[in-house]
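Entry for the shared binder. Reason: the reviewer on the internal report wants the predicted structure included alongside the sequence.
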Amino acid sequence: MLEPHPKTLRTLLARYAEARIAHSCHGDPGAARDLEDVAYTLCVLTATASVEDAIVVADTLLTTARDSRSVGAEQAETDLAA
């Protein structure tokens, strides 16, 4: 499976949160449409059928990406010290 870039996931998660807040606070039809669009995009990018599953997968992917960067940085420091 191709993995979406972490920046894309963070942006979509932020947009989803903003749309949920706008929809629940204002009941704006535009906010409902935005919420549906972002939820759909999250599902497509994470290959899931529900937005709840998409959020879980996105969080897992972001954690994995963060951990991979940490390991890479530690390896670079070790290489420089040698």
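Summary line for the report: The mean pLDDT is 87.
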